[in-house]
Structures are given as C-alpha cells and as structure tokens.
Amino acid sequence: MTTKGLFPKIWRWTKRIFIILFIAQFVYIILLKWIDPPITITQFVSFVTGHGLRRDYVDREDISPNARLAVMASEDQKFPDHSGFDWKSIRKAMEYNKRKPGRTRGASTISQQVAKNVFLWQGKSKFRKGLEAYFTFMIEHIWGKKRILEMYLNVIEMGDGIFGIEKAANVYFKKKARDLTLQEAARIASCLPNPKVMGAKVAASAAPYKTRKIMQQMIFLHNDPDIEALMEKPPRKKGR
C-alpha cells in the first residue's frame, strides 16, 4: 500500500475510534446517573501506590443531611445556584495566582470535583482542565444537583485511602453516615482540601478551628431554601 493510500485509511480508523469512544463515554455518563462507578482512577492510584482503598458506596437516603450540608458549607456554598462553574471565584483565583505565583488558590466547585474524581485523573494540565469542563457540563445537565452531591459524598477522598462518607464515618466515629451529627460531619469536611494529611488530624480531633468555622457556615446556610432542598432526606427504600 502506498503512502497516499495509507493516510486516508488511518484517518477513517481514527474517526471510527473517536466516534466509538465518544458514544462510550456518553453512555457511561448516563449509566452513572443510577449506578456507582466500579472504580475511579484516583481510587486505583491510591490502591497501587500503597495508600489503600477503603470505601462503601451508599444511597442518598443513607447519608445524613448534616454531611450534605457540611461539604457544601466547606467546599461550595453556591452549589445549588451555579451551573457547574463559580465564575466569580474563578476570576478571583486567577487574579490571586497572578499576584502570588508561588502559591495556588483553587476555585473548583463540587461539580468540577466530581467530574475530576469520577472520570479523570489528578493534575493541573490545560488538557485535563478542558476535559473537566466538558464532564462538568454534562453531569450538570444529565445528573442534576442531588445526584452530583450524592456521587461527591461517595467518591471523594476523606482520609488517606478512605473514600466516601460512609467509610469515613465508620473509620473516624464507628458509625454509619446516616447517623453523623453536625459536629462530626464538619470534622470530616475539614479534611477535604488535603485528605491524606488532614485525615489524621480529624481522627485525632486536631482541627478544632476549621471544624468550628465549618459549623458556623452550616448554621448560617441551613435556612437557605435551595440548600434545604438538597438536604431533604428522601424516604428509605423498602427492606432497608
């Protein structure tokens, strides 16, 4: 086969592979509206690098409203209102990072964190950020806020090798996620920016200032009707 005939064939196969991959990821996004991911890249990396993989996925009705409120108070207080991106916070973070290049301030919403942790890998490359924006847009429109928050509380790392609120509640407080008190939920949320380091402090009750700050924000946000709608506990499934 001549070079002239080879390139069209490579191009045809490239287009076919791209179409297959696009359809596959689209179907996967739709499926995850109802099922939990078998494993994420972050979880796999944690396991193979010796940090372990401890997790227990639970349904939304088995997660304390306190836990849902705590992560919104800690990570994304505008979660009910934005469309996946907090543009004001993003602009502030960009201006801060320009002024202080030695430091980095993030502005990722809960939706962006879910997109990153469910579909992608950890990192700061422009390519990965572009994919993150795509998946954030898709889950906002396909899953909705309640499913995004449920997924966040199931897949996010909440300690060294500890993934999800159920396992975090079990490890730190010897109880189920549905039984977490306001203070316990705030303590777990306090480790989210750096779970591998801060998880040990949560276990040792060594982050009282941050826990109090999150609790104050939880009390402040509690009466917000949009926040309350996401905290509302659905009826438990029969047989559970």
Walkthrough of the structure:
The chain is mainly alpha-helical and 240 residues long. It has one domain: Penicillin binding protein transpeptidase fold. The chain is built from twelve helices and two strands. It has a two-stranded parallel ribbon.
SSE topology:
Layout: H1 3-31, H2 41-48, E1 54-55, H3 65-75, H4 87-99, H5 110-119, H6 126-142, H7 145-155, E2 162-163, H8 165-173, H9 182-189, H10 195-203, H11 208-221, H12 225-231
Parallel strand pairs: 1-2
Helix pairs in contact: 3-9, 3-11, 5-6, 5-7, 9-11
Could you provide a short overview of the structure?
With 240 residues, the chain is mainly alpha-helical.
List the keywords.
240 residues, mainly alpha, Penicillin binding protein transpeptidase fold, two-stranded parallel sheet, globular
According to CATH, the fold-level topology is: Penicillin binding protein transpeptidase fold
Strand content: under 5%
Please give the share of residues in helix.
Answer: 55-70%
The helix-strand sequence is HHEHHHHHEHHHHH
Average pLDDT score: 88
CATH top level class name: Mainly Alpha
Strand order of the largest sheet: 1-2
